[in-house]
Amino acid sequence: MSFLAAGETAAVTTKARIFRSRLLGREDYLRFLECGTVGEIASLLARTEGYGDYFRDRSPESMHRGKVEWIITFLPLLEALPFHHYLRGTREALLRFWEERFDADMIKKVLRIIATGRGNRELLKRRAEFIPMTLVDGERLVAAATYRDVLAALDGSPVRRSLEEPLRRLERGDGNLFRIKIVLDNFFFTRFLETAARLPAAERRGVFRIFGTRADLINMYWIYRARRFFSMSPEEAMGVTLSVRHKLNFETLSSFAFAPDVPAMIGLFKATPYGAAFAGLGGGRVAVDEMRLEHNLYRILWRAAAKCFATGEMGVHMVLAYLTLKELEVKDLFSIIEDVRYQYDKGTIRRFFINPVEEASQETERSEAEWLSSR
Amino acid sequence: MAVVEMMGVSLIGPKQEIEGLAAELLTLGNFQPVPLEYALEKRPAALERGGAHITTFQKNPYDDLLKDLLALWDRAGERLPEGEPFEGLPPSLSYEQAADQVRDISKRLALWQRRTDELQEEQEKLLAADVFLDAMAEAGRDVEATLKTKHLALTFGRLTTENARRLQEMATVTPLIVFPVVQSEGHTLVVVFCSREYRPEADNVFRSLFLKEYPLSQLFEGAGADMKGRLKDRVGEYDRAILGLKAAPKNYLGRRRRELEELYSAVMALQRVYALCQRRGELSGVVVLSGLIPAPTLPEVASAVERLGANTLLLTEKEEELERRGRQLPTLLKNNPFVKTFQELVALYSLPSYDEADPSPLVALSFCLFFGFMFGDVGHGALLVLGAWYLARRNVLNKAFASIIRIAGLSAMGFGLLYGSVFGSEEILPALWTSPMHGIPHLIRTSLVVGVAFLSLGLLINILGLSRKKRFGRMLFDGEGVAGLLFYWIAVLAALSAFSGGGVPLAAKILLVALFLVILFSAPLERLIFGPQEGESSAVVHTFSVFHAMLSFLSNTASFVRLAAFALNHAGLSAAVFMLGDMVHTLPGGVLFKTAVLIVGNAVIVGLEGLIVFIQTLRLEYYEFFSKFYRGGGTPFSPITWDSQIRE
Questions:
Q1: What is the pLDDT of residues B88-112, one digit of tens each?
Q2: Residue A82 placed within a domain
Q3: What is the CATH number of the domain that holds A330?
Q4: Which of B59, B189, B210, B212 to mutate to test the interface with A (most CBs of A within 10 A)?
Q5: Please, what's the b/e burial string for B205-230 (b: 16 or more CB within 10 A of its CB; e: otherwise)?
Q6: Is there a domain that residue A109 lies in?
């Protein structure tokens, strides 16, 4: 590692560790559970180190849910920006590609508005002005009224090639937004992990530990959903997987997709390194299965990211690990806001936090059913 | 010193008059619009009570029109019309009329684009078929026989190379046979075979991988023997049609240039007018337009209202009233051209806030003094002047920065005369003052005197500023107030006395202790005499800041020794270049080597040392001088003018 690279990695690792120390702790989570309104949650966030700067001077106590969600959604992206000052070359590109996931989300949101005619374009416009997009011409994208306009906004962007045919099909009424999501995910993971492959060994391992795991989990999840809920053929199920893989290669994924039935497929899942996520699946109610599975998958990702901080390594993967933890924390905050909004049972929701602040003890079918019945 | 006084104005009148006035304000270029609430909020006027009924706006309706119109020039591949947009009264073109015309143009552009896309799509099919024919010929297969097989289904199509790889992967677990034909620009053309029974399942795979299928049987049906020739003819026809459609915007613009340029000018003018009126308020056809203007330009605005707004009311609000309502006013600096050059350096640190003195004149003088002192050399100074002129001409340096370097070069030349130094040689010119190599003690003494003078000046400006803000407690007792200044002067005199062997007089010691105590207890003293004040820091922070201030008197003064140190450094480096030159002079071809050493050495001195001295000068300005009185944090006054951002 060159002297300059050592400086780069040391600087970003130190910053990432400092940022990580500002993540919410067990006590914070418990305090959030005591909140009765979104305003109280925002006020509490204003008093934390990790969120305070974004909530102070905005009268958090009277904040609307949409506003709170808007701020916390883009917070990981905002926190990624200062790291650019320290990084160069592949590391900097990697961080930029990570940020472009948010641009990809914007593309999905605009397409959803075009497809359904519903959604807040003004909010998207504000986002585009707030943090300029690099993957796509933000102004043109937000103004796009048709799929063709979206394609025009993608002129010169590397994602255009991947989206060209899917968008043309959408325009002809052949296709759906789910396919677009797959294409965008594929684009992100392929570019991201191909770039990560150019990093020195330790950093590469770190990035694959998080994003390789993420790709594997997505592949398993989509095969599972394709077979269980969408009644797709094995070929179609394989078609919705990502082209990048980490621990689960093409043959393994094919064996899942071509399994004779869903229970057999779940049996195969359980034999993989991610088998724990699928434990107890298939027997109970579908909704319970879905929620538990999603939670378990995120929990695996959380552990993969947290593990990076235990290695004592330095590198851009530490930044990505921190940002992943922050993103998952934001997901937990969304759960807390939902909890306040729909008055869920707090005792149960705490066991479904991604951050293992309170390890689930014995999850009984009864308590889950209670929670679901209160939705 | 040169912060221009600002004032608030509100124009209330009929929409048409306000539009005319807005155009006039764009020409005057002195109006920074503010949201309506800025003008109405916290005002005990009747307007506030009516405020709730006033409609306010956030969007400029002409932004989209202009953008759509610009697409025509863009698609025609032509530059936008030269010259200023319409100036004066806004054109008598309503928004609806402008929107109709622009919409008509947009429709045409969209139609041409759609037709082009369709033709390109068809052409792409033909080109793919051509590739297929080549592949079949290479494999020695008959095209029609291949397409009409009984049990095999053939699919020919295009997909991204990434998806082509996945299709090949899928072929390992499905009954598909995949042949990539050609790969270009991230896409791959493939031929896929499967049994006719498996075709529906294969279609699912193709759909999920976004394979774009080219239906070959339709293309080749009835094509006869010369398939390739026919394909070529059709591709040529499409080529011509596509070229015609691509030229359509240019032809359209050519045919109606005058009319379209007038429309562009009108929309552009209205876009600017509404950029200024964007945050206006409207109540039953009456428009309220509020903004800030430099106070000296009020007569121009009033005259415009008199000329163009017979029914328009002009309300003004002075800076004190605005500040009383908690409004932070923007900063506009006004200086002579010489001082204006150095405004950039001040802005680089931070623009003065509205109620702060502009340090630009002092920076202009001190920058010349510091830079010249450290880099005094007639030859090197002249090179700086020439270099800055050349780089500015080549657009490598921006105008303001080049001016600063030119002035710094002139100052270096001036000090070069005082030092008698030309390209480091002190033999050519007689020194008018002293030579750095021979007058070191003299230079150090002078640099310290300059330091004491500048720090005192900084403290004096701070005292004046505090007095203007009526912070008399801080002005009298603070470490950077009167007590601090007296402490500093007495400490300097005491140090002088000590260094000249006279020791420190007892009276000086007593005064220093007394003043230190006053500074240390400045906060309670201020509270006692002048009552509680805003922005008081805690006792711990205050104690540390007092010690810091006292120590900084010493460190800041010592810092000015760098003036002498860099002057000596410059002379030393120049001498080293000459010595190196003399050393290589004795080698074979020595004259050439010596010339090269002298040229490279002097280039290094001008480039590298020039940069270091520049940075040291900035350091003295920003850290030693500014820290005594300057806070900054101002926002620039940004009037809206005719200069269009879109065109820029």
A1: 556 678 889 999 999 999 999 989 9
A2: no
A3: 1.10.132
A4: B210
A5: bbbbbbbbbbebeebbeebeeebeeb
A6: no
